[in-house]
Amino acid sequence: DVANMLTKGQEKKVIAKLDELKQKTNVKFRILCQAYPETPGLAIKEYWGVDDDTLVMVVDKGEGFNSRQIKGNILNLNIGSNVELMLPNQFWLRLTNKLGNQPYVEKAGEDTAILNAVEAITYCLEESQNGSTCKDLPFDFNVLTQS
């Protein structure tokens, strides 16, 4: 969390959740919180041992704008080929479009957007081990608030 988007307590909870996910599914879920242009870049690939069983969520509150100068989504996913097969493309698209869009982030806060994305991803990846498939977000994130 080089951009300090999470509190130390939130960071510890996320790390515990990601460790549990790794044990249950063999998925290495990594999160990079940054503010472009200050970024570690591709150095994380080797440092984290990114492979086909890795999901990297880059949370960027930096200077990213689209062609109409509207600030872009803060959530970007780099999904390993084995992880990508565990859930349909529709899930990944809805996740980033719902929880990473600027209106949601402004209303809920960056930390809540990150925590809700982690919750949705870990829940659905764990459910995929039981034969279930999330085609959409598993919870109504309009009503979730920080705890």
Overview of this structure, please?
This protein is of the alpha+beta class and 147 residues long. The protein contains six helices and three strands. It has helices at 8-25, 43-48, 81-84, 89-99, 102-108, 110-128, and strands at 28-34, 54-60, 75-79. Strands 1-2-3 form a three-stranded mixed beta sheet. Strand 1 (28-34), helix 2 and strand 2 (54-60) form a beta-alpha-beta unit. Helix 1 runs parallel beside helix 6 and helix 5 (102-108) crosses helix 6 (110-128). It is globular, with a radius of gyration of 15 Å.
Helicity level:
40-55%
The shape, in one word, is globular
- The secondary structure category is alpha+beta
- Main sheet overview: 3 strands, mixed
Low-confidence segments, ≥5 residues, pLDDT <50? 143-147
Enumerate how many helices there are, as a single number.
6
Write the element-wise H/E pattern from the N-terminal end onward. Answer: HEHEEHHHH
Strand tally = 3
Strands in their spatial order, largest beta sheet:
1-2-3
User: What percent of residues are in strands?
Assistant: 5-15%
Question: Span from first to last CA?
Answer: 19 Å
Mean pLDDT, nearest integer? 82
How many whole angstroms does the radius of gyration measure?
A: 15 Å
In short:
The chain is α+β, with helices and mostly antiparallel strands. It has 6 helices and 3 strands.
Chain-wise SSE layout:
Layout: H1 8-25, E1 28-34, H2 43-48, E2 54-60, E3 75-79, H3 81-84, H4 89-99, H5 102-108, H6 110-128
Parallel strand pairs: 1-2
Antiparallel strand pairs: 2-3
